[in-house]
Write a structure and sequence with these properties.
alpha/beta, Rossmann fold, six-stranded parallel sheet, three-stranded parallel sheet, 11 helices, about 45% helix
């Protein structure tokens, strides 16, 4: 068996066409669309993601404001910036890039983002709605995992409902922005789901869980964590990891959480890094920014009506 390589760039291009139409419709209806990103420090992965966001925003004609703060920024100053962006009517979506420096408490910062502008659903209100199955926004990376999987199912002529109902999905990684939402979205599709993290590998039990997977979603942040012995033959592997690795000659490169070449002879289908989940994530984030603009406009109109 040689795994089918799922082309995330192709899927992203198709999604981008859809989102471009959503941008045009929202702007024609009077919605003010704008994304603000905040980077604190110089994390390589966050910098790379910020550049990708700026590029896709420009391509979709979505105004983007990138704010870069030094690593020693005080938490109070970061929160004050978030509050200013909350009040800025030209900004419909706010994204604080992770990871934040250790002295900043992430959850406390996310709690200060206006829930309507919280396009990655990290505010407790939005995280709660997602867990209840009625999301205001679906976090872009987790949403993209299932968008890519759905696209592959459609391409290969498989019925989505039948596939999910008979599948065991195993999610490796429990982050608030990827792992946990990926579990919730599996619930929504009525699939069986197991959640583990890299700590099960301390006593060599990672494979015990991952070999049960019909679909393996890997979002642990550990390069090369998953090898061929960790999967069953015929599994579908979706690699979310984006890890900067220093090469011997080529400088820093980005690699996934999966030993890609090692899995090619066992997996049924697999996403590469780069070129898999990442490009779709970038476009889905823009979709959430547009959705936030339309919701903000609806809220403003409702408040105006109540005032009359």
């Amino acid at each position: 068996m040689t795994a089918q390589i799922i082309d995330g760039r192709k899927i992203a291009a198709e999604l981008k066409t859809e989102v471009a139409g959503e941008v045009a419709a929202a702007q024609a209806a009077g919605s003010r669309i704008g994304l603000a990103t905040i980077l604190v420090g110089d994390d390589y992965g966050s910098q790379a993601y910020g550049r990708r966001i700026e590029r896709i925003a420009n391509e979709l004609a979505i105004p983007h404001r990138g704010v870069i703060l030094p690593a020693d920024t005080r938490q109070d100053d970061l929160v004050a910036l978030v509050h200013r962006l909350n009040r800025d009517d030209s900004i419909s979506g706010i994204l604080v890039l992770r990871p934040l420096p250790p002295h900043i408490h992430e959850a406390s910062v996310f709690r200060e983002i206006d829930p309507v502008k919280d396009v990655e659903a990290l505010h407790p209100e939005n995280a709660g709605l997602l867990a209840l199955g009625v999301p205001r926004y679906v976090p872009s990376t987790a949403a993209s995992v299932y968008h890519v999987l759905d696209s592959w199912l459609d391409e290969t002529g498989q019925d989505r409902s039948t596939f999910y109902h008979r599948s065991q999905i195993v999610v490796v990684g429990r982050s608030n922005n990827v792992g946990k939402p990926a579990v919730s979205l599996a619930y929504d599709r009525q699939a069986a789901v197991t959640s583990v993290d890299e700590w099960v590998n301390l006593d060599n039990r990672l494979g015990y869980h991952t070999r049960r997977a019909d679909v393996l979603v890997v979002a642990a942040g550990h390069p090369g964590l998953i090898r061929s012995e960790h999967i069953s033959e015929g599994a579908v592997v979706l690699d979310v990891g984006i890890n900067p690795v220093q090469g011997a000659e080529d400088g820093i490169t980005l690699v996934g959480d999966v030993a890609f070449d090692d899995l090619l002879s066992r997996a049924r289908a697999i996403t590469p890094v780069p070129g898999g989940i990442g490009p779709v994530t970038d476009v889905w984030l823009m979709r959430n920014v547009v959705l936030a603009a339309t919701r903000s406009q609806a809220t403003t109109a409702a408040q105006a009506g109540e005032a009359r």
